[in-house]
């Protein structure tokens, strides 16, 4: 009878025709290639032609015997991507019918079982139980199985949040945490899988040489000390041969090995069942595996057959073969080992059985150091005073120093392999149902097997046999095999085929197969070669106990990031995070992540650091190369949440003076082709910021947004390219406005977000301001100065910006000169300090020039300023320049604010520490009010007589009350006032040029513009004359607050 029945379905429920668009429709036979459908499991429809509406059916498969047999025949342990490569080799691959979709049992549960069970269960679990004891082994198994179970819960949530194609863990993590994490973790998973291949090859060779064909050994040691090295060399030779064979098989096609997948899986299950059968049998009728003890020391069965000192040959009593191993001859008068003579030989049962009270003896740990003889507790023994141990004597020796963390590293690979289900989601009928169910059931099954095995091994097998890693005390049998029923060979052959199956699964199907393409037939030749080389590294290590912790690291790192991905997505509550698997919680994911991290460092802290370093390097490499993919990953959501939180925190109040740094708004012009006119401004920005703090590069286009939005986009692209070239980390903003004046005002007012706003504006000096057609440029510039003052923003104006150095230039010597005429919050001090952090200015020295009047004490001023700079931790040469009051009177419009600031700063030098700390906030408050109320116009001198100004360091006058200054009558007219200001500019300029003509950069105070706008042109002329004959000038105007402090 047919195993399927056909259920007719209405056409609308079978196809979704979205409006008139033909892209999502499947036509009835035009044969044209269709766009990939966005719907799940639509591939079957798209590969063949659509049938007429009346013939459309859905298949409802009945769970009959024929279906089960069909599933077993089609069982494969290859992930989806590898099988696609195999099918692509055949020309008729496209014509083949798609493989039957698998359910939970065949598609997830069995592959996970086959991946999890492996070489450690058969070769090392008995030894782990013997060394660590039942209690610690139980904790170890619970710890590792909990780790994989929690990871499986997180993985199930991710895997059921949409379709997971080939790529497994790489795909899940890259789509959840971004391509950098995906690449780093994907590589770790790849390295772990490749080293797992090496481990399984080494396990195969160990079973082959130790238990099946010992005579195949090429290298043999002359004594016991050389035997270990000879065994490692045998492992290297045979391991390399096996790896070469396997690589060749893959090159030809892994599908041929995959035909035996079911055989391999059957062997594993049969072996485990044989162990349980042996346990039951041992309770009823224990098997005979006698162990020979000399005193309390376990003897190796190699070299003797009878566990006795003497035997009867004819009528004569002579020494046995055991006697000959400890004595010079078989005769009774031979010279023998002292311990051998003093102690008796006894024989005990190696497997007393589950009914014995052995479980109490094996409950606690017995850790051994390398070269120590395996001894049985509680057996009488006559110890020697000064024992000398000869490794050539037939004892069972410990081959390595053991401790709990080492055992965790060796055991953990036996619980890996939980990704097998998620890797094959494309083969499943209902991946979102099968992956969680199959994976969690497989982990529960394997965990139950491991936990029961620990208890049963401890209850059935003698402790000295458990601690005998290679079964030397039981005639070289596999220890777990001695327990199996009906024969030890069931386990030996089963474990051998298990490791062979693991090789065909792990060492040969690299993670890179999914992505790599090599030859025309689709084989990723270079990826295969790379995998073989990495696998060879593991084989050259040659010790299974050394390789196991390495792959533990890589798997643990992979699992840790799976948990992190689930926790991040859950906590962020991303709208797209809607997994069908509901039984997860961010606390479980966080616990799983913590457990993975703890296990990494428990196994081996230095391996953990190396694994993290490798992952970190890959992460930074992908980040540096710039992963172009945008997958809507969780890290982007995390960044948004963190940015929002930080912005809200910044809103809490203004930054302390110690944290103040220039947050720049850089105003640049673009030409008709949307290219930046003065790119040197961005070079200076890079030198000033060194990638720290906020940088916004703004520009204004004239016109309307509807007409000019394309030009604005091009201008933004141009700004981004230039910022990237100049290594300026920040944002760009292009505003379209009806005129430049309003556009610049909008930028100054609205740039930034919340507490992350600019506090400094950087702009270039309008060079051609004197030209008539350019008169609006300087008007806009002066309005910019006024607006920055009103907004309490610092202003930096660069003159001769084309002469400023690029980022590739270097000054080998020179000076940065600061002309400190009035105190403006410390900007003049701070800017050279920041510039000298950059390699362009690093070798330049800083000089500070301050101006004194003729009646000031210049020597005291220099001392005070030197002390102040010392407290500021700034290294600079100090020079005081004396000038007549009439030469600098044009600066008198900088009145109240600068006087109060300077006086208070000078007073601080003479206050006690507590008084100074109390003054800090007071100064700031005074400054803020003074700044808002201070007159700022040089043209006001005509209307209101200015007060006496105290310049930078006038200690005696700083505390004196301001007194009116009577002006001569000849200055009563506006023209005469302008002449006086020009006189000031010329005189100051003469002094500055004389002292700083060869300086690499000159910084000086920028006076404020006049209140009366009729004097704007004179103000521009004043600044022009002030800075004549200087190559690079930066005019600095403070923002009305202290930006530098002497406090730590």
From TrEMBL:
Q: Does the keyword Signal apply?
A: no
- One GO cellular component term noted in the UniProt record for this chain: synapse
Q: Where is this region: Disordered?
A: 26-45
Amino acid permease/ SLC12A domain ranges (all copies): 108-279, 402-462, 502-665
Subcellular location, record wording = Cell membrane
Feature: compositional bias, Polar residues: 34-43
Q: Which residues cross the membrane?
A: 105-134, 140-164, 184-217, 237-254, 261-280, 400-420, 440-466, 486-504, 525-544, 550-572, 584-608
Record key words, sorted: Cell membrane, Chloride, Glycoprotein, Ion transport, Membrane, Phosphoprotein, Potassium, Potassium transport, Symport, Transmembrane, Transmembrane helix, Transport
Name the Pfam families for this protein.
Answer: AA_permease (PF00324), SLC12 (PF03522)
Task: Name the Gene Ontology biological process terms.
Answer: cell volume homeostasis; chemical synaptic transmission; chloride ion homeostasis; potassium ion homeostasis; potassium ion import across plasma membrane
The record's catalysed reaction(s) read: K(+)(in) + chloride(in) = K(+)(out) + chloride(out)
GO MF assignments: potassium:chloride symporter activity
Q: How does it sit in the membrane?
A: Multi-pass membrane protein
Its chief place of residence is membrane
- The residue ranges of the SLC12A transporter C-terminal domain are 679-797, 808-1048
Q: Which domain of life is it from?
A: Eukaryota
Show the InterPro entries listed in the entry.
AA-permease/SLC12A_dom, KCL_cotranspt, SLC12_C, SLC12A_fam
Q: Which NCBIfam families match?
A: 2a30 (TIGR00930)
Q: Which family does it belong to?
A: Belongs to the SLC12A transporter family. K/Cl co-transporter subfamily.
- Write down what this protein is called: Solute carrier family 12 member 5
Question: Per the UniProt entry, what species is this protein from, by scientific name?
Answer: Chrysemys picta bellii (Western painted turtle)
Query: What's the encoding gene here?
Result: SLC12A5
